[in-house]
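#data-curation
PF: Archiving a pair of folding outputs for the training set. Convention for this channel: one message per protein, sequence first, structure tokens after, nothing in between. First:
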Amino acid sequence: MSLPLPQTVKGDSASERLQNLGLELPDLPGNAYFVHHRAVDSSIHISGQLPYQDGELLGQGVVGRNVELETAKELARHAVLNCLAAAVQAVGDLDRVRIVQMLVFVASTPDFGEQSQVANAASELLIEVLGENGRHARTAIGVAGLPLNTPVEIQMICTAV
């Protein structure tokens, strides 16, 4: 049985598709302790990004306890927007970003078991915006806790095309 794949949103460029979704890439503030991205050969490693918007963490808690699945999915979309912003910092243009691998951490109860559904929301956004360049290898794992008690953190590896 084949599953329906997310579709690329209409628009000539990744930036237009992002805009057509009513989204924009955030500005990422600097940090004294880490960089948002590091290039190694042709790979660009994106630091774990939390679901921040305008400098505010959008949610706290544990999925399956006090955070609903739909909320976690929305938080994953915000976290992946921050990953894309870091990727653009690295390569200069959203149309040059190709996602290679994404690692999604979900702070969840031991019996939650739907971490992949949270990750699917981030994967779907990448494909909607980047098309084939957004398809990626992926791991979604449940963890006991994340920084600042956030429910979702996303790390990725990308390359420039």
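PF: Second:
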Amino acid sequence: MLLLALDTATPAVTVALHDGDDVIASSSQVDARRHGELLLPAVDRVLAEAGLRLDAVTGIVAGTGPGPYTGLRVGLMTADTFGLALGVPVHGVCTLDGLACAADLDGPFVVATDARRKEVYWARYADSRTRLTEPAVGRPADIAGEVAGLPAVGAGALLYPDTFPQAHEPEHVSAAALARLAVERLRVGEELPAPRPLYLRRPDAQVPKNYKVVTPK
């Protein structure tokens, strides 16, 4: 087994290789505006670090979000392209689940990432491997009652200390955690879904309401 994992659902552009026993190479850079520019060089970097070629990969793992439309689609389209070119399966893993795995907490907690527009993408967890709620998006003040008293991880939690007073790192997901989680699930026979994006809301870019189509007479 050699899984190539990647995620662009948060400001982190993160890539890792997992050989079925451990993560053998990884790279993470935080830049919310350069996902498309940074992702493929990061893939090249982890392959070079491991001394392997892309055609050695036996499966792809992609973070499915939730996340902003533009950043998220970079990773998902790249994963699909690799899978098609190599003829290998492409597995989807929720980005929030990857953050929960990296947090490695025993008791109940919350994962919250920055959704912009003064909102967070969030979900509750029983432990680092068990999600209790479906990923959702909302204003911190509106979900305060649902997360009260719980530790929280992720950039969204760190941004809103009034709602998440027990917030701490990790701030962003790592592909290494996604890869570990995927390997664990595959080993117990779980069928991982195809990577379909969790957008949860419409893109930030919108057609102006009073847009007029001008056609030649």
